[in-house]
Amino acid sequence: MSDLYGVALGGFLGIIGGVTGQMLQSRFTARRERKQWIADSRKEEYRELLKTLTQTATFLMEYKGTRSGMDQEYQKRFREIYGNGLRVIADRIFIAEEIKEAKIYDRWTAALVELDKSSDIHPFDEAFDRISADIVKLALKD
After folding, report:
1. pLDDT tens across 3-30, in order?
2. CA pseudo-torsion sign 94, 85, 130, 40
3. pTM, full prediction
4. CA gap 58, 16 in Å, rounded
5. Domain ranges for the chain
6. Residue 60: closest CA among 39, 42, 84
């Protein structure tokens, strides 16, 4: 009779061990997948930020180089682009803290204001190069 209890107890412990192992494996897998999802989301946010700011800078430098800053069409487009650039900086979720620490918003707005005031695009181009280089460094940090 005691052999029967021993077999039953062994079977029970085997089941408990198997279930516990499955739970732990599932938990570790979920944790790893979450970390990967966050890393992918961060990468995508940096990519979108850099893409939007690059498109904005390209448009502004090309347009500013060929048209008067007082042109109504330019002013309208400038406001749209300005708003889109600020939106994409401000609506980051996973990289918000790094963007804040790097002062990307402040540096970007200062560069845009200076570009709007001046006919010289070179200071804006240099500021944009520094901002985009910093964004790339932040993106590659992890």
Report:
1. 776 666 666 667 777 767 776 676 767 7
2. positive
3. 0.74
4. 62
5. 42-140
6. 84
